[in-house]
Amino acid sequence: MASSAVIRRLVTFIVFFAVISVWTTLQLHRDFIIGSNYEAKPASIQARVEHVQDQQPLTIWPGSNHSYYKVFYNRLPKCGSTSVKILIRELKEKNGFKFFEDKDYEIQVLSGRNLSRFAQMVDRLPTPSIYDKHIFYVDFQQFGLDQPVYINLVRDPVEQRISDYYYMRFGRHGENQTAQQRHRRTEKERSQTFDECVFNNLWECNASGAKRFLMTQFFCGQDSICMEPSQAAVEKAKENIRRHYAVVGVLEEFSSFLKVLEMVMPQFFRGAHDTWRGIESQQMEYQKTAKKRPPSVKARTIMRQRLQLDYQVYDFIKDRFHMQKTQLGIVD
Ligand SMILES: *[C@@H]1O[C@H](CO)[C@@H](O)[C@H](O)[C@H]1NC(C)=O
Ligand SMILES: *[C@@H]1O[C@H](CO)[C@@H](O)[C@H](O)[C@H]1NC(C)=O
Ligand SMILES: *[C@@H]1O[C@H](CO)[C@@H](O)[C@H](O)[C@H]1NC(C)=O
Ligand SMILES: *[C@@H]1O[C@H](CO)[C@@H](O)[C@H](O)[C@H]1NC(C)=O
Fold it and tell me: Atom 11 (ligand 2): residue with closest C-alpha?
């Protein structure tokens, strides 16, 4: 009798254990597929996988302590942000959220009171909402505020520099002179090609120029270590991406970026891909930078070297994005 009781208990235990395992697996699977949803509990959406290059765990989903209703798009210049903004404007009615667009063109570095005031302003915005600004990453937690979840879009650093270079001279197709004048370049500067800029070590292209590690700075943030180029700034940028960015896409795979956003944040980006297909053709022409002259291979090679910190960040982002796509089953 005693032994059959033991067996019964053992069987009960095994069945119980099996049920729990299956349930857990299903839960994980559900969180992964459906629960890519932002409303899911933070703890359950921490999918960690090994990062091939860094041998460090990659957090596909943002960690805890994020406010799941506020998305911060600290957009980089000349990386497709106009397209993303146009798309968000289309989606905000459909998906029922607010979109707060910053009108400031300049990239600002904030410190002290200005930074805390800025964080408080963003914190007070109604939710659910997306806020965008050209600004280096801001750590809200240092002010005891909820961290919004971040998204961003980058592109190949040399391509970004080329696009920025000509944009600062000639603006976009269809833009009029007043808009162009804002870009403040002299006649002489306007006549110089990107190749000349690179080969003559001019300030916009040289190794000590203001934008020599701009991509790194956007993810590194407002700290003093982010103000001078260094490996520490790169590491800090990667750490912030891991911990605080739900999605950082690459412009070269814009359509996948939209699909990932749709799966990770359906409450904001449901229908993004189809909506974009509907408006894409009329947008692309307008957004092209005017008079862009393709630089030589040699100039590209030199710039690639000068931008090697940004390439570390860019390669990290690209690997992470590809891993995220794989996890979500997005193929193209
Ligand atoms: C989340 O915030 C709480 C209180 O602000 C803090 O104690 C905790 O360590 C934070 N957790 C993480 C993972 O950052
Ligand atoms: C705050 O911003 C104002 C205006 O842009 C500037 O003059 C001031 O120096 C800034 N203060 C700090 C502490 O950065
Ligand atoms: C050109 O500039 C004028 C004056 O600022 C403005 O009213 C107009 O809308 C602009 N046109 C375009 C196409 O941007
Ligand atoms: C970059 O250009 C600026 C302005 O012309 C100059 O002062 C600086 O020395 C240059 N730096 C390098 C590394 O060539």
Answer: 114
DSSP 184: -
Q: Per mean pLDDT, which range of 67-71, 206-210, 305-309 is the poorest? A: 67-71
Determine contact, residues 45/36, Cβ cutoff 8 Å: yes
Tell whether ligand 1 has an atom less than 6 A from the beta carbon of residue 65: yes
List, for residues 71-128, the tens digit of each pLDDT value. Answer: 999 999 889 888 999 999 999 999 999 999 998 877 778 888 999 999 999 999 999 9
State the pairing for strand pair 48-50/57-59: antiparallel
Number of domains comprising the chain:
2
Nearest atom in ligand 2 to 112's CA:
13
| 80 and 20 inside one domain | no
Residue 242: φ, ψ to 5°: -55, -45
Let me know whether 142 and 35 are in one domain: no
Protein residue whose Cα sits closest to atom 3 of ligand 3: 178
